[in-house]
């Protein structure tokens, strides 16, 4: 038998293959002989020394060794920071000019690193640049929503191996976010509490799905994880807007993000993954009902007709087993 | 510049890469030397002669040559047709036993066929079996929604090459469907018309995005197609429930479905695709606001962090160009 579980935050039903679930290690990426990556690639636009290959730089974080993280315009942007967002209405059709921001955040001068293997301070620098660009772009009146995301590996949609993330700032609020806000409001009106805060309390009480925790953050597999090793990292403090993160919290988030990604790296052999920072629309700042967070999705399975046709998911891993497996993964001292 | 378009039916915003759009033929699957498939494979559980390899058969459509289409239980079901759907509530967590149906529809006795290359009558037989199983399962009081879908090719999530579709009948209404119903109701209340009927009228008037049309169906690329060559096939007659399809309409749907799939096969070199039949929850039968239809998604691109983090899509093909390209694809006389 299987079990359907309702994800209270996304409202998606997930079919969890309880009895037939695969063992966690079966989701590891197959080992392949690969040529080690060089620390510098002469043709890579993101490598230190090749700064001229990139588009306009919007921000640079330096230390005494030179730049550590750079934000640059995307060479093939989906959105352009020029002009006004002009709306057109024709019958039931609605369109809007593609105004917005689409930037690349180059995470490190070196070509061959990945967050799982970086120093904590390097990871903190990446998050600092996320916050910096988020805070700057947020005040552009044309922008409604900012999405920070990372595609790691070909199976997660990237073709460039140099470590990088992206930021997309859209002139509309995506429908998916609208719906989640509505559901969070409904829960708040019903109970007087934030559903994200409730989830943290419940997960910390049961401990079954916790992967790691720190002073300011909790990383866990959701009760109704949409796919194997789907992970959420929630700030303990109730805060709706990502750029509200403090310096202290950035240091702490760097630690837990690196820990979770290193556990995936060592436990599942460097799987492809996406992560995304989910935050409130830019026009809002503080709400009682919404909580920013990081969603991390290892790409161990492929959405097929059932998922596309229903919006439901089939998860062949048991969330409690996945969490227990990741808790036990040890990160080498030099890792 | 790009353009954001709102899909009025799904309510998703899509970023259409208008200027930088790829040419339609760039989405073709790369040509590879492949060994032709045999018409019979001794190890294939779906081949004629190997009927004993499958699980319980729920339906068989015969003619004087033997069976033409079989519906069988899935060997690795996500849902099981036994017992009651028991609900559990614990704090904010909700679960339900995995009661339902998960069947495979073996589309043809031969191993090496695909709908694009079948006789019209063979395609009609497949749709007859869809309707048959839909109609039978719909009356099971434990079932709330039936999803019929097909995964064609590895990139669309199938590992078995013998032509087959699937049916999943769930004990809940997926949230995605709930939301679409709500939006369809809102449009109906606002205008007194079905948004699907409105869309057909608009598409037939503009003709820009039409791929093919027949007496009872219209195939077109949506104005805000979520991905390249994303196609909808709508019945012209307003009808909410798939099993309301008539015998005449089945013959006509077989023709247009084969036409569209053959245009993809010849125009884009047999791309991987999913299709799904979207129908009303089983408890309802006739509504003024909802219209069943087929959604077809060629898997030419991969959803990455932006899509996962926003629910929005970036479509690098211009819907009008994709439709124009497919209209022009000629199907060989023996194809």
UniProtKB/TrEMBL annotation, chains A, B:
- Cofactor note, please? Binds 1 zinc ion per subunit.
Annotated HIT domain ranges read 195-306
UniProt keyword annotation of Zinc present = yes
- Lineage of source species: Bacteria, Bacillati, Cyanobacteriota, Cyanophyceae, Oscillatoriophycideae
Look up and give the organism this protein is from.
Microseira wollei NIES-4236
Required cofactor names = Zn(2+)
Annotated residues that bind Zn(2+) are located at 44, 47, 111, 162
**Molecular function per GO:** UDP-glucose:hexose-1-phosphate uridylyltransferase activity; zinc ion binding
EC numbers: 2.7.7.12
Please list the GO biological process terms of this entry.
galactose metabolic process
Name the family the entry cites: Belongs to the galactose-1-phosphate uridylyltransferase type 1 family.
Name-wise, this protein is Galactose-1-phosphate uridylyltransferase
């Amino acid at each position: 038998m299987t079990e359907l579980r309702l994800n209270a935050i996304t409202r998606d039903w997930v079919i969890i293959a309880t009895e037939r679930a695969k063992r966690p290690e079966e989701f590891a990426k197959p080992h392949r002989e690969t040529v080690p990556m060089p620390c510098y690639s002469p043709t890579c636009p993101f490598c230190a020394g090749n700064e001229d290959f990139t588009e306009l730089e919007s921000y640079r974080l330096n230390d005494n060794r030179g730049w550590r993280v750079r934000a640059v315009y995307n060479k093939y942007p989906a959105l352009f920071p020029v002009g006004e967002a002009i709306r057109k209405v024709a019958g039931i059709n609605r369109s809007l000019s593609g105004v917005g921001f689409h930037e690349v955040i180059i995470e490190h001068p070196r070509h061959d690193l990945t967050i799982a293997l970086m120093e904590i301070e390097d990871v903190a620098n990446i998050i600092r640049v996320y916050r910096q660009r988020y805070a700057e772009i947020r005040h552009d009146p044309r922008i409604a929503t900012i999405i920070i995301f990372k595609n790691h590996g070909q199976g997660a949609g990237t073709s460039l191996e140099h470590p990088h993330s992206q930021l997309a700032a859209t002139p509309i609020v995506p429908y998916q976010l609208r719906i989640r806000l509505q559901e969070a409001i409904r829960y708040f009106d019903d109970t007087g509490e934030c559903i994200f805060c409730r989830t943290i309390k419940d997960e910390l009480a049961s401990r079954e799905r916790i992967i790691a925790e720190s002073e300011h953050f909790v990383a866990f597999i959701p009760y109704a994880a949409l796919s194997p090793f789907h992970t959420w990292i929630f700030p303990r403090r109730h805060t709706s807007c990502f750029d509200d993160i403090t310096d202290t919290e950035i240091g702490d988030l760097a630690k837990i993000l690196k820990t979770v990604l290193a556990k995936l790296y060592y436990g599942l052999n460097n799987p492809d993954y996406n992560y995304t920072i989910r935050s409130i629309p830019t026009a809002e700042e503080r709400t009682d009902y919404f909580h920013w967070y990081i969603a991390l999705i290892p790409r161990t399975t492929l959405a097929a007709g059932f998922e596309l046709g229903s919006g439901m998911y089939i998860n062949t891993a048991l969330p409690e087993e996945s969490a227990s497996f990741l808790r036990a993964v040890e990160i080498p001292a030099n890792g």
